[in-house]
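thread: overnight batch results

M.L. [08:02]
morning all. the overnight job finished for the chain we discussed friday. pasting input first so we're all looking at the same thing
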Amino acid sequence: MFQFIIRRLFYGFFVLLGVIVVVFFLFNILPGDPARMMLGQRADISSVAAINKDLGRDKPMGVQFLNYLNDISPLSIHSNKTGSYWFLDEYKYKPYIKLFTISGRSVVIKTPYLRLSYQSKRKVSEILATSFPQTALLACVSMLFAVIIGIIIGVLCAIFKDTLFDRLSLVLSVFGMSLPSFFAAILSAWIFAFLLSGLTGLNMFGSLYTVDDLGRGEYLNLKNLILPAFTLGIRPLAIIVELTRSSMLDVLTQDYIRTAKAKGLTYFRVVTRHAMRNAMNPVMTAITGWFASMMAGAVFIEYVFDWKGIGVVIVDALEKYDFPVVMGALLFISVILVFINIFADVMYGFLDPRIRLN
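M.L. [08:03]
and the structure it wrote out:
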């Protein structure tokens, strides 16, 4: 298992390297001058040149790419000479650990430097660190809702096949899969936050933290999480119901299920101990895939409900041509996807003994 994890990490490294190459060259061939975005259209030529030099854009494209790799790499080389782009700047690269120095260059371990925002002049890593917890909370709650309800309904549909409950659940799951995210968000907001707002008394818009009326500080407002989490969980819930039902129906016809029944085991024990565990592999694939996409930022859901997550950050950055923020967000999302897929492969081994043996 250890060798398998190392091999998957090795493959994941090359996937990330490919993403870095595509993201860098894609956003560096787009029109627009970052220096003029930062200084304004009336900036003088000398100021524009100074900004481009600080950003390393006065160098050939290949050198810019090497500079970018050095910035985002946890292990990097830096010059001790002031004025060089590779200078070990305290603001850019802190915190870091200097390993050793040779020929005027230092090898350091640091957090990846994702550059500065063109608009706010803040570190991209700080912007993402502020927005990611909101997206992570929304994704986790949505996925938890979809997994628990979806598996329960899917198992019951398989047990009570062709009953009214089974047919109604299939109709609702097909409806949930075919419902676009942006339309589901608008429809849920209209029904629950406007039509039924007087009945429920819930205000389900806004971020997790709300400033009180007197401006004395922020307080936790969990009710704002209900509607976005429910809306985001509709589509994965429908898919989990379908996959659980079909996988359970296939497993319940296997020989070892009949053997377990013949040995006198209760039907509940047969379903929970033998059938469900072996039916979870395709469900696990769907769960990890959807969870990765949720962690990447549910753009429509966050934007409609004004949820201050990565999705809103990406949309705002695209509107303002703030390319470092978009590039940093894409790389951050890629890292999440790679590690979630590796985690899913490891979980397959625990769920299915046949995979462990292979």
